Amino acid sequence: MYRFLLTPRWWGINVFAVLAIPFCIFMGSWQLGRFEERVDTHAQQEDRSARAKAAAARPLDSLLPVDKVTSGRQASARGHYDTGHQLLVPGRGLDDKQGRKQGFYVLTLLRTESGKALPVVRGWLPGDANAKADTAKVPAPPKGEVAVSGALQASENQGTDGVQAAGGLPKGQLGMISAASLVNIVPYEVYDAWITLADTQSPLRPVPPAAAEGSGLDLKAFQNLGYTGEWFVFAGFVVFMWFRLFRRESEAAKDAALGITVEGAGAGGGAGDVDAGAGESQPTSRA
Questions:
Q1: How many angstroms from the chain centroid is the CA of residue 7?
Q2: Please, are residues 146 and 78 in contact by the beta-carbon 8 Å criterion?
């Protein structure tokens, strides 16, 4: 009855199912593992952030390059603010009790003793970076030699929230905080990192440090979870289609064994018409 399973057509179906089902399960498990890994790194990052806030600041150079471990750590540096290259970073939101508000970062470059400059986000202000009434509220940076400490952050990229990588911003504004975007603005080397101050001048508000890239429960993490469900659904679909085809073939084989055949209607009509025609065309005996 099940000899049809040995036909070349069913050999192909069986081989496909045997290979496809484990592959889908493997891919689903792999995507689930990626999601769980992001959950674990998110918890680790939160723990590191909590410890970093309580830990003493360390010299900047000892924490470079920025990675998942050093991101958010308190870094310290000494130097002079370059008041001639203070920049505004527009289109940056900040959450408060009334919800999320739009505003801009105030970024000033700190010329350190090493000769390189460190981008320092001195704080955030609500409003429009193109409105004179809002930019007039920006306090002047301290003069003379200063010692700063803040949460260390990696350079932004095109995927960072709020970044305006297309360019075309007015003079004195910066779309992306990175050494690459600053190289054509200032005539000196810039660290491939930046810090955000916790202690800010009024009316500036401190900018909280962001989680290191790839360590938070971001959109990519939930994409991994969605892909997990998709792969398991694919595996279930392969099983469903195999049993559906198997059931149809086995029922057809049973019907054939019982001599039951299904004949389609001809172009001239149904089976009843054929019987009627047969009765009318019976041959007559010759005299």
A1: 46
A2: yes
d(CA 215, CA 251): 54
With 0.85 as the threshold, say if the pTM is over it.
no
pLDDT tens digits, one per residue of 107-155: 999 999 888 999 999 999 999 999 999 999 999 999 999 999 999 999 9
Please, which pLDDT band fits residue 252 given cuts at 50, 70 and 90? Answer: confident
Q: Rounded to whole angstroms, how far apart are CA atoms 255 and 184? A: 81
Residues 6+ apart with CB under 8 A from 114: 61
CB 60 within 8 A of CB 117: no
Tokens encoding 69: 């471990």
Say if CB 214 and CB 45 are below 8 A apart.
no
Query: Do residues 168 and 95 make contact, with C-beta atoms less than 8 angstroms apart?
Result: no
**Residue 8 gets which letter from DSSP?**
H
- Cβ partners under 8 Å of residue 251, min gap 6: none
Cβ atoms of 72 and 212 closer than 8 Å: yes
Q: Which secondary-structure segment (H or E) carries 228?
A: helix 219-257
Task: Enumerate residues 6+ apart whose C-beta is below 8 A from 159.
Answer: 213
What is the C-alpha end-to-end distance of the chain, expressed in Å? 53
Q: Which stretch of DSSP H or E encloses residue 94?
A: strand 87-96
Map tokens 């040995």 to a residue. Answer: 6
Query: Packing angle between helix 8-54 and helix 219-257, nearest 10 degrees?
Result: 160
